[in-house]
Sequence to fold (317 residues):
Amino acid sequence: MKVTEHIAGANGKTLISFEVLPPLKGKGIEALYKHLDPLMEFKPSYINVTYHRSEHVFKKRSDGSFEKVVIRKRPGTESICAAIMNRYTVDTVPHLICGGFSVTETEDALINLQYLGIDNVLVLRGDAAKNETAFEPEPDGHKYASDLLHQVMNMNSGIFLEEDLKATNKTTFCIGVAGYPEKHFEAPNMQTDLRYLKAKVDGGADYIVTQMFFDNAKYYAFVKACRDFGINVPIIPGIKPIYSKKQLTVLPKTFHIDLPDDLSNEILKCKTDEEVEQVGTEWLLHQSKDLKKNGVPVLHYYTLGKPHIVANVVKQL
Ligand SMILES: Cc1cc2nc3c(=O)[nH]c(=O)nc-3n(C[C@H](O)[C@H](O)[C@H](O)COP(=O)(O)OP(=O)(O)OC[C@H]3O[C@@H](n4cnc5c(N)ncnc54)[C@H](O)[C@@H]3O)c2cc1C
Fold:
C-alpha cells in the first residue's frame, strides 16, 4: 500500500512510521530483526530503509604505501525492504539516491522494487561521497533529487530508457521527497530551497518527509511557509531521540540543524549518558505529543541504534 493511501485511510488520525538502517555488512539480517521486533507491536504503517553508497578509503599496506579501496558498509536496501515485508507484513519505503547511480542502474533498481511488490520510494540526492568536497553526480547519473524523481515519474507513465520498448508495464510508485525545516545547508536561503522543493512537488512528489528537528516551532513554521508557497502535499515530521552528550556537537555538524537552548542546557547538566537518554526520551515524548495534538499525518521516527527509546515514547502516546 502507498504512504498516501495510509494517510488518506487514517481519516485525520496520526500514524506511526519507523526508519531503519541496513545492518553493517557481516552482521546479518538478524541484527535488524532484533532492532525491529520490539517496535512492531506499535503497528507502524510503514518502515523506511535508508540507502548507503559505497565509499573510497585508503588502506595502509605493510610497505607503508596506501591502497585505494571501495567499501560499502551497509548494502542491501532493496532486499531488506522485501525481507521486512515478508516477516512483518508491513509496507516499506526504500530510499533511493542519485549518488553513485547511473540512470540505467537507477532504472534497474526501480524495476527490482516493482518486482518485489514495493509501492513506495523516497527519492533523494544523497550527500557528497566521503572523499569529495561537494556532491558529484555520476557522469551518466542524476544531479538533483528532482531529476531522479522525473525518472520515476516517467516509469510511472510507462516510459523507460529504451525508447522503443512497447506496451510497457507502468510502475505505480508513490514518491516521497526530503524537506528541511531549517533549510538545506547548500541552499543560499529558505526561499530558494522552497522553490526547489516546490519543483519536486510540481514534478510529481506525493509527500515530503522532513529532516530531523528538535524544536516543533520550526516544523510548524516550515509547514506554513510551504503552504504559503503553494506546496500542498502532506509534510511528515521526522524526529529522533538524543541519548549521548556527543550528539550536542555531532548532530549540528552532520545534519546542519540547531538544538534548542532548553534541550542543550538540560543535556549539559547530565553527568552520564543514562541521564542524557532520560532527558532525550522526555524531549522526544513532549515533541511527539505536541505534533500529534496538532494533527500531523505521521510521526516518523529515526530509530537509529535506539529502538528501546522510541518504543518507550510511542508506548506513552
Ligand atoms: C528524510 C530524509 C532521508 C534521507 N535519507 C538518506 C539516505 O537514505 N541516504 C542518503 O545518502 N542520504 C539521505 N538523506 C540525506 C540527503 O541525501 C541529503 O540531505 C542531501 O544533501 C540532499 O538531498 P535532497 O534529496 O534533499 O536533494 P535535492 O532536493 O536535490 O537538493 C539538494 C540541494 O540542491 C538544491 N537544489 C535542488 N534542486 C536544484 C536545482 N534544480 N538547481 C539548483 N539547486 C537545486 C536544494 O535547494 C538543496 O540545497 C536523507 C535526508 C532526509 C531529510
Notes: The longest strand covers residues 91-97. The pocket of flavin-adenine dinucleotide is lined by residues 50-51, 95, 97, 124-127, 144-146, 178, 184, 186-187, 193, 196, 209, 211, 238 (CB under 6 Å).
